[in-house]
Predict the 3D structure of the following.
Amino acid sequence: MRYEGDLYSPHIQGDDYILQCTIGCSHNKCTFCYMYKNKQYRVRQLHEILEDIDAAKEYYGDVTKVFLADGDALNMPIENLLAIVDYLYNTFTGLQYIGTYATAASILAKTPAELTQLKNHGLVEVHLGVESGDEEVLRTIRKGVSRAEMVEAASQIRQAGLQLFVTVILGLAGSKTNLWAHAKHTAQICNELQPDYIGLLTIMVQPGTELYETMRSGQFSAPEEMYIMIEAMRLEHTGITSVHPSNCIDLEGLLPADKDRILQTLSRIIQNKDISCLRSRKTERV
């Protein structure tokens, strides 16, 4: 198996076999993201990917879960994606799950029929970095799509029958004066999307990103909007997790069933002034 550079997958998919289909991210302009800055985006040759699958079979034996990397494997041509998914299921007889990262732009570049094809061939879940539901924040971080385009992309994933996992980032609005709008608008977009799962991350400001310079200039504040965001969520059946190395606390649950319990935990932490990643790290699980 051949890998180029660092590999990333969702935290909850950490034990998957990661298959690198593209190198880097097709957008790669977000001001907060450092993951693919040292990579020039390209789509790998199909024959190389299939050879890697054969090598993984020899090394691992059978696997049950596969995650397609790097940052935007869904950007590949549809015929390549279908060939990869089919080859994976033919190679690993116990395979139960294939997931992938996707950008809103790459989703919208596919037709609804193509997305349905992927689902029918065995793609299970698409991970979409929503990051924020606030239009101004999306522009500031140079996400490359509008709020409306994000909603449309997510809607097409759901209509195709694929599971939708979205990530949102606490602290992304920067200064505390923007906290409320970012939290409320992000909750609102989650209410519209009704995803299967929401992953809450906290902004990790890395040297070399534009947001790092903002932090150094004193405009960045610790994220304290988790309570506001979750309180404003009106979800019908959505898992939620903050179990990620970036977060101060670990919370997991199912909304709306666990909402009150999660909010009570957050309220206690905030009252005890333990919420800030910059002061201390506390781990609490609901």
The first strand starts at residue 17 and ends at 20. The longest helix spans residues 46-60. The chain has ten helices and ten strands. Residues 217-223, 275-286 have pLDDT under 50 and may be disordered.
